[in-house]
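@channel sequence for tomorrow's demo:
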Amino acid sequence: MTPPELLTDDGLAMLLLCSSFGAAQPAVPDAPAPFTLSEWNQLARKIRASSLKRPAALMGHDAACLVRELRLTPNEAERIVRLLGRSGRVAVELDGLFSRGMWVATRADRHYPPRLRETLKHQAPTVIFGAGEIALLSHRKVAVVGSRNLDPAGAAFAQEFARRAVAEGFAIVSGGARGTDLIAMNAALDAGGQCVGVLADSLEHTIRAPEMRQWLLDRRVTLLTPYAPTAGFSVGAAMGRNKVIYGLAELALVVSSEPEKGGTWAGAVEVLKAGWCPLLVRAGQDVPKGNRELLKRGALALVEPRMPAAEEWVAERRTAPAEQDLFALRETPPTDKH
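structure tokens (generated this afternoon):
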């Protein structure tokens, strides 16, 4: 695919406004910062309520016009104008991105994963970058997550669960990190299945590994990240990608977790509160303490590494995408159902 095939005019405007992609390097000292997710959601509602209606309509207007149309301060309007003014540089960068085997999609584009948009709604990332077959993101997926340091029993559990999920037609979605993530993903690939890796950093570096390159070419693996392809690692980014993993999944399995510590615990607690998908936790006598604590908080116990019947749960929570609100998604209250 080429940039015009993936990015609509609205998508290009969102990319310019919500991502540092294509920013001058080294950074210009007074360069405007891209809109954060919460800032974009507020701006999107103003766009929807104005006569402009769509992000692409902001292009070509000066700051004075945006102040009038969107009821912004002069500084806010000038920020938009300057971010949109990067379109020439970003167009060149997009050509380079696609030539290196990567792609980009925004919440306003039809290739953006529909489940991610429908599940996370206003918390769905405004922009995602990826590599591999983008259509795989619309397939049925189960998430497998857990600690980096996994005991042999946990590793065997993750492997068997992944194999059975593949046998039932699911792809495995995980974070691609050492430990549980890679153990489950490798088991799925060995079983002839497909995987989605949600990265917290270094997409451009990751796709250069020979084995990964081959999986991408064979359409066995799709990678995506809500961060720029060259972004480095940060704890905040690792936490932020957790919701993307859960947002893509029909259901999720926590193989191993430490209580009140680490990304696996934080992500599991978040999904229990938000109700994005059913959360299963490996149960039994010798599981980590964090697993037992998650069960007390309402997670579903999984003693044997097999796929449960969660279709009814999933169907209750699946909603049709709101075509008129692709870029200005509504907030929904959290659910207490598990």
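heads up for whoever presents: Residues 278 and 317 are 10 Å apart (CA to CA).
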